[in-house]
Amino acid sequence: MREVVGNLPVFTKLTPNTTDILLPAEAAMAGGADAVALINTVNSIIGVDLDAMAPNPVLDGKGTHGGYCGSAVKPIALHMVAEIARNGATKDLDISAIGGITNWRDAAEFIALGANALQVCTAAMLYGFRIVEDMNDGLSDFMDAKGYKTIADFCGLAIKNTVNWNDLNMNYDLKAKIDQDKCIECGRCHIACEDTSHQAITIQANEKGGRDFTVVDAECVGCNLCLHVCPVPDCITMEPQENGLPYMTWPEHPKNVQKVAE
Ligand SMILES: Cc1cc2nc3c(=O)[nH]c(=O)nc-3n(C[C@H](O)[C@H](O)[C@H](O)COP(=O)(O)O)c2cc1C
Ligand code: SF4
Ligand code: SF4
Description:
The mean pLDDT is about 95. A four-stranded parallel beta sheet has the order 1-2-7-8, with helices on one face. It is globular. The protein has helices spanning about 1-5, 20-30, 75-85, 105-110, 120-125, 130-145, 190-195, 225-230, 255-260, and strands spanning about 10-15, 35-40, 40-45, 50, 55, 65-70, 95-100, 115-120, 175-180, 200-205, 210-215, 235-240. The longest helix is centred in the middle third of the chain and has 16 residues, at about 130-145. With about 260 residues, it is an alpha/beta fold. It contains nine helices and twelve strands. It folds into two domains: about 1-155, TIM Barrel (Alpha-Beta Barrel); about 170-240, Alpha-Beta Plaits. Bound molecules: flavin mononucleotide and iron/sulfur cluster (SF4) (2 copies). One iron/sulfur cluster binds near residues 197, 198 and 226. One iron/sulfur cluster binds near residues 184, 188, 235 and 236.
């Protein structure tokens, strides 16, 4: 490749339509790339025209897959950028991050996970190039507030805290707590927990003729679901429980049958 491009920097653009993003990233590195740029769009069918019985958009009776992009793909892009940034073989590659970057916070999140360049496609299509000036202003305010003088001061700071699931602290205990003064008694938390989580929120009639929704600590597994469905800001909070137990990963945990078998 170098014989063809000379000293020009080479960014290899990576598709997310793969199971393990490290394989193409390592291949790009082996091929002499200076940087990787990711992600491209995610293969998708956005919907089906039920009259034409063909995927949208319908072209002369037929449709095909398209490329999903914008805010919806940001979580996929963040994950893939983080995988490359924390992988021993690829951690020194420069990363130009793309995927749903729409505001300064999106930009800061990608930088925190190790991106040292950013690209914006869908947001520029929706709002024009001026959106980048808004991102610059927001990033600048964020950096002032945190005392970061340059992008390099916070680039990659979140990498060391991005771990495999089994390296999380299995003894970390969170319980949901409902602020009765903020609760509007809509019942969404109860339905969510009752039907799809751990049946940990009770309903009781109160003396004001209303209903109290209360978390049963012994049943709550700290899944966060009730917090996400509650329509009232800060009405449900997740409270860390002091249990005195040490940091314990899954490989160390006594409930891990593989450990027991050792
Ligand atoms: C209409 C459209 C056309 C695109 N064309 C290309 C292309 O020709 N080559 C390419 O590498 N990526 C192409 N992309 C992908 C974008 O460069 C980008 O990787 C992707 O859209 C994710 O970023 P975004 O969420 O900011 O849009 C295209 C995206 C869109 C929406
Ligand atoms: S955190 Fe999960 S388990 Fe606990 S009360 Fe909320 S929905 Fe139920
Ligand atoms: S979802 Fe929120 S507001 Fe609704 S009942 Fe539960 S705690 Fe109250």
